[in-house]
Design goal:
Layout (H helix, E strand, L loop, with lengths): L1 H26 L6 H8 L3 H7 L8 H16 L6 H11 L5 H17 L3 H21 L1 H4 L3 H23 L9 H14 L15
Helix pairs in contact: 1-2, 1-6, 2-3, 4-5, 4-7, 5-10, 6-9, 7-9, 9-10
Length: 207
């Protein structure tokens, strides 16, 4: 029963988060109240505050779900190479259809709004920090006990995605949804250069 309740709670929080993201992206955080998010989500204001301490925190589940998506792709691998990481970065930032492209553009608008709202930037920062910590653990199969390399690559991957999305959101290229993936892959290559172990002869070619 507790598992079912947990799933229902997670689903409700995600529904509220999706509503908050759209409202913030369209109107900004200062023009949207927690009550308006609750009403649009079909929950009471009391329920809203049971889940989220501030209205800005309400976007968290959407952002964390995005981070969890690419972590799950990597978690299935025993060893992660630069090729694997680059491929996953490109995959998660390349919309598969028009709906995903629209979602990416909404994210761009949200990140523009975050430029003016410290609390929203704090949520974005927490998501990136948690994602980086999760990647450090996932890279154990590649680097073993060499924590420095694991942290460098995890920081490089997380920062590459963050930098690409933030720059794209503030650029004139937001109609082109291919831009974030290209910029993130380029940033990752630059940031992680020299951190990877040397592959065995022919190992990289066989990926």
């Amino acid at each position: 029963m507790s598992t079912l309740r947990g799933r229902r709670t997670a689903a409700t929080k995600l529904d509220i988060a999706k509503t908050a993201v759209v409202l913030f992206a369209e109107h900004g955080t200062y023009s949207v109240t927690a009550r308006e998010i609750a009403v649009a989500s079909g929950v009471s204001l009391r329920t809203f505050y049971r889940y989220f301490p501030t209205k800005e925190d309400a976007v968290g589940p959407v952002l964390f779900a995005g981070a969890a998506q690419w972590q799950s792709e990597l978690a299935s691998l025993d060893k992660i190479s630069a090729v694997h990481m680059t491929g996953v970065i490109r995959q998660i930032l390349t919309p598969a259809d028009a709906a995903e492209a629209d979602q990416l553009r909404i994210m761009a608008r949200l990140l523009r709004v975050a430029q003016e709202d410290q609390l929203l930037r704090d949520v974005w920062s927490r998501v990136n920090q948690q994602s980086e910590r999760a990647l450090v653990d996932l890279l154990e199969g590649t680097f073993g006990a060499e924590v420095m390399s694991r942290r460098i690559v995890a920081a490089a991957a997380t920062s590459a995605i963050r930098i690409a999305l933030e720059m794209w959101a503030l650029s004139e290229f937001t109609d082109d949804t291919n831009v974030p993936a290209a910029w993130a892959c380029d940033a990752f290559a630059r940031l992680s250069r020299g951190a990877w172990p040397e592959p065995a002869d022919g190992a990289e070619a066989n990926l």
